[in-house]
Amino acid sequence: MTHAHINEHSEPVRSNAARLKGFLVLVAVIGGAIYACIVGYMYLNQQSLLFKPAGELPDPGTVGLADVDVMSLPMSDGVMVTAWFAPAATPGAPTVLFFHGQGGNLGDRADRMREILNSGLGLFAPSYRGYPGSEGEPSELALIADGIQMFDRLDGQKLDIVLHGQSLGTAVAAAVAEQRPNARLLVLEAPFTASVDVAAERYPWLPVSALMKDQFATRDFMAHITVPTLIFHGARDETVPLHHGKALAAMAGDAAQIHIIPDGTHNDLWSHGLWGEVQKTLPQY
């Protein structure tokens, strides 16, 4: 009787345990499926998450740059890329090779360009391939290869070149500086150690290092850059936190100076005197 009594009560317990196990397995399967969908979405859409061209490329004159010419340049693979160019107004002054950030188009940077030109320097600002005015599709390798080709074009004209990168463009500018040490100056505006590092901080639950094709790892060659470097970073930058700029400055050692702007965010460093500091660094021309 005692043995039968035990079986009578253990069967419901086993049944409940089996149901619980089945429920947990179902939850795990559904959760895994959802996670896999998210990973797949991020992988398939990573280009649009990193490169965000928008709008139409305006005529420079309509954004206060009447002295800027529009050029269409063939890259080494035949892709046509548009660039805005204006020679230096002051004889002997350097030309700024300007690499813009991830969003919008060149017209969104007109105020920066006007300040550069007003200081007497020349300007050469490419619109990345895949961005308004340019053919092709953007990628890390393509943007860096294009940047080197544009540097060589200016260098072939015996121009002194200041490399200036804004956000995403800092990775391009730094890569060019690493391979072209004869640049006059490298300016990094709100740089990151790597785009994959920023992504990992934003999505710590995703295997971003395995997913990202274009990782823009500036940290991998920062120590090899001999071009004098100015790093500008806002202490209130929530897009690319300040520790990225500090890390790059530490990697560069004596080659770099970092300017931390206490009230600066990601996109307003020029309004906090960035260009004035750049001009102080350039020798008289």
CATH topology of the largest domain: Rossmann fold
- What's the shape? elongated
| CATH class identity of the largest domain | Alpha Beta
Largest sheet: spatial strand order = 2-3-6-4-7-8-9-10
**CATH homologous superfamily descriptor of the largest domain:** Alpha/Beta hydrolase fold, catalytic domain
CA-CA gap between termini: 106 Å
Q: So, CATH architecture of the largest domain?
A: 3-Layer(aba) Sandwich
Count structural domains. 2
Query: Strand count, sense and closure of the main sheet?
Result: 8 strands, mixed
Give a written overview of the molecule:
The protein is an alpha/beta fold and 285 residues long. The chain folds into 2 domains: 43 residues; 229 residues, Alpha/Beta hydrolase fold, catalytic domain (Rossmann fold). It has 9 helices and 10 strands. The strands form 2 sheets. An 8-stranded mixed sheet has the order 2-3-6-4-7-8-9-10, with helices on both faces. α4 crosses α5. The model has no long low-confidence stretch (mean pLDDT 91).
Question: Which descriptors would you attach to this protein?
Answer:
single chain; 285 residues; Rossmann fold; 8-stranded mixed β-sheet; 18% strand
Chart the SSEs and their pairings:
Blueprint: H1 2-44, H2 46-50, E1 52-53, E2 69-74, E3 80-86, E4 95-99, E5 103-104, H3 110-118, E6 122-126, H4 140-155, E7 161-166, H5 168-179, E8 185-189, H6 195-202, H7 208-211, E9 229-234, H8 242-252, E10 256-261, H9 274-281
Parallel strand pairs: 1-5, 4-6, 4-7, 7-8, 8-9, 9-10
Antiparallel strand pairs: 2-3, 3-6
